[in-house]
Amino acid sequence: MISRIEADLRGDGPGLTRAIRQALEALLKELSAKAGIAPEEIDGLAVTGNTVMLHLLTGTSTEPLSHAPFAAKRLFGETVTADQLTLSCIAPGTPVYLAPCAAAFIGADLITALLAGGLWDSGDTRLLADIGTNGEMALWHAGELYCCSTAAGPAFEGAGISMGMGGHPGAIDRVTVRDGKLRAHVIGDTAPAGVCGSGVVDAVACLLETGQMDETGYLEEEVAPICEPVTFTQNDIRMVQLAKSAIHAGIRTLLHTAELQSVRELLIAGGFGSYLDVENAAKIGLFPEEMLPCIRVIGNAALSGAAMLLLNTDYRKVCESHAKCAKIVELSSNPFFADE
After folding, report:
1. Global confidence as pTM
2. Under 8 Å CB-to-CB from 179, ≥6 apart: which residues?
3. How confident is the model at residue 7 (pLDDT cuts 50, 70, 90)?
4. Which long-range contacts (CB under 8 A, 24 or more apart) does 52-55 make?
5. DSSP code of 179?
6. Beta strand pairing call for 126-130 and 134-141
7. CB 3.0-4.6 Å disulfide test: which of 2, 86, 107, 125 passes with 50?
8. DSSP state at residue 213
9. What span, in angstroms and rounded, lies between the C-alpha atoms of 185 and 215?
């Protein structure tokens, strides 16, 4: 699985395709070295990712994804060979399974996360949210799979925030209130340089708790100190509000579409979700607060699901069937979503 691509995303399609394939080759070499084998000994791959990334990996034109009606040329759920992807570090005929997507913005990463989370394994009504720049959500109810995607923006990944950064040394990843003051934990126990996604959620919740921010998101002072020299601005708060409202409204819309008020379980997936303080997330309205008791954090479920597809090929038809039959809930023109 390409879980993270360290590539310059400013470029043409062929250039991005090369960058992604090079990153995949580097990853294959790294994984085979850890396993104590040569890359040529790899006899099968399973790859998951969002629809755009899989288009780029396979050299498929992304032009239809750039404008309405956003119709993907391929939804995958297919097997290609290593030489078709010009992966030179493994045997040319090595089969590469590309996990299925449900729609242009409902990618294979969501489908494999649903597999890992066991969303359709019981008769319970369950919901999964993969929270990132593109918030993908799925609801399983009465044998039906409802999916939606909302542009949450990059605030929960540390981007778009004045002093935001990724989860690297120097990033504030936890904020608490002690004796009425904000206390921060910094990754690497070094001087703070910025704040990452989990710290963003904590910081906003703590500013609300201390009264430095009111319930509308208004900051009493122009700049709110988090941990010197890291601060939060009014615009930072607005960015968080836009992101969290998109996720919250998406969840509400899925429930409304299925004529539901609640679910048995809410699964939080994705790298960001793994480090999320769910109580603070509920406090700022990232998801409905009444769902707090039924939350289960399942980490990088997309990767776990890809491993399941690799080790048990029977799961492939299951995923393909659910991806094909998923009911896509379009949010852009949905009046209920707009009202929420």
Report:
1. 0.90
2. none
3. very low
4. 52/107, 53/2, 53/5, 53/20, 53/107, 54/98, 54/101, 54/107, 54/108
5. T
6. antiparallel
7. 107
8. B
9. 25
Report the share of the chain in percent with pLDDT over 90: 81
DSSP states of 97-166 as a string? EEPPPSBTTB-HHHHHHHHHHTTTSSSS-EEEEE-SSEEEEEEEETTEEEEEEEE--GGGGT-SSTTB--
Using a 10 angstrom Cβ sphere, with 0-12 exposed, 13-18 middle and 19 or more buried, the burial of residue 311 is exposed
Q: Are 81 and 96 in contact (CB under 8 A)?
A: yes
Tokens 């094909």: give the residue. Answer: 324
pLDDT of residue 2: 42
Query: What is the β-pairing status of strands 144-151 and 171-178?
Result: unpaired
Structure tokens at 215: 């319930």
- What is the β-pairing status of strands 126-130 and 265-269? parallel
Residue type, 126: R
Give helix then strand counts, H and E, for the chain: 10, 14
Encoding tokens for residue 261?
Answer: 């008020």
Determine how β-strand 95-98 pairs with β-strand 78-81. antiparallel
| Peptide bond just before 39 cis, omega within 30 deg | no
DSSP letters of 238-298?
Answer: HHHHHHHHHHHHHHHHHHHHTT-S--SEEEEESHHHHT--HHHHHHTTSS-GGGGGGEEEE
